Amino acid sequence: MTDQTDTSADLAEIRRVVAAHVAGLHDKDVDAVMAHVGEDILCFDLAPPLATRGAATYRRNLEAWFPTWDGPIDYEQARLEITLGGDVAFTTAFNRLGGAKEGEGTHHLWVRITAGLKKIGGQWTVVHEHVSVPFYMDGSLRACVDLTPED
């Protein structure tokens, strides 16, 4: 017989991990973002290449990206959903990011994000992250950076 565990504590911890990640991005705090990133994270991000692997690469990408913003990054999350199954979980959400870019003015866009988490050593750890925007299917291959969660 296996014990049924109370998932409410895991769900609350995952929400805390996600909130800390969002706050770290807003504050451009590399260490705060990295606090729950797994050593072998697989990331499908907006910027090339198609995929990166490893916490060291994830950190370098943040260290290169954060200085391109003038001040904090406007960052908000909508429609966070968590699916939990034992020691693995995934989250989905729409995240709005933007703010003043160095020498480029102000930009804002909504992205889709899915994060895969695994409980490692009793801690929820992000082991996969996929960030994307759709593109127009009219042959232009333009990214749809003007959409909102209401569209």
Overall outline: globular
Order of helices and strands: HHEEHEEEE
Q: Report the average pLDDT across residues.
A: 94
Helix content: 10-25%
CATH architect. name? Roll
Number of β-strand runs: 6
The largest pleated sheet is described as: 6 strands, mixed
How much beta, percentage-wise? 35-45%
In CATH, the topology is named Nuclear Transport Factor 2, Chain: A
Number of helices: 3
Low-confidence stretches: none
Query: Structural class, judged by helices and strands?
Result: alpha+beta
What would CATH call the class?
Answer: Alpha Beta
Please indicate the count of domains. 1
Task: Please outline what is shown here.
This protein is an alpha+beta fold.
Could you characterize the architecture of this molecule?
The model has no long low-confidence stretch (mean pLDDT 94). This protein has 151 residues and is an alpha+beta fold. Strands 2-1-6-5-4-3 form a 6-stranded mixed β-sheet. The longest helix is centred in the N-terminal third of the chain and has 21 residues, at 7-27. 25% of the residues lie in helices and 44% in strands. It has a single domain (7-132), classed as Nuclear Transport Factor 2, Chain: A (Roll).
